[in-house]
Amino acid sequence: MIWPKAVQDRVKTGHDRELVHAYPYRSACPSTVWGELVDRAAEDVLLAGYTNYFLWLEQPAFVDTLRRRLDSGCRVRVLLGDPDGEVTRQRETIEDVALSVSTRIRITLEHLERLGPSDGLETRFSSTEDAVNHVSLSVFRFDHDALVTPHLARLVGHDSPLLHLHRREEGGMFDRFAEHAEELWGRGVPLHG
């Protein structure tokens, strides 16, 4: 055996090489991780959470951060649930919290309006057919890094687990989640206005 057991236990091999960190709660992931990932993104940011509202609350001057990304030529895409959709209403009943899902989506839309029209900024609602798949899994991609939250039963996003993935191979975990988000994006309904 070339590698001692102690080294083998610490070196990631196989499919888990792309797993940077796992958090039992999305809220346990330091806000600095989110900030660093969006600041480093040079080509593509895809925020495919159903509401994305927490980013505006937890990231200082997030509108300015996105503006810098856009001004540097980075593509920024935001995929949201339809605030008036049936899946949104169902999710509000399930979560049964004061800050409703539709309100959280509208918070994001309000902040996006502050960015104004911009080359490279695209916003879509998930399609009616995909809404149930979107509400159950959030994927936030920053070039070759992704933060993924599978939503558990009746829990809101911050109480669900989060995986930080970094792309290292074709067809790995990163690609699987990124492809899911791209599929939802591709069938999404563009916002106009």
Task: Give a structural overview.
With about 190 residues, the chain is an alpha+beta fold. Helix content is about 40%, strand content about 20%. The protein contains eight helices and eight strands. An eight-stranded mixed β-sheet has the order 1-7-6-5-2-3-4-8, sandwiched between helices. Helix 4 (about 60-70) crosses helix 6. It is globular. The mean pLDDT is about 90.
| Structural class based on helices, strands and sheet pairing | alpha+beta
Kindly state the number of beta strands: 8
Question: What is the averaged pLDDT score?
Answer: 90
Helix share bin: 25-40%
Annotation field: number of helices: 8
Summarize the main sheet: 8 strands, mixed
- The helix/strand order is HEHEHHEHHEHEEEHE
Short description:
This protein is α+β, with helices and mostly antiparallel strands and 193 residues long. It is 39% helix and 21% strand.
Spell out the key features of this protein:
193 residues; 8 strands
Question: What layout of secondary structure does this protein have?
Answer:
Elements: H1 5-10, E1 19-23, H2 31-40, E2 44-48, H3 53-58, H4 62-71, E3 75-80, H5 86-95, H6 101-115, E4 121-125, H7 131-135, E5 137-142, E6 145-150, E7 162-166, H8 173-186, E8 189-190
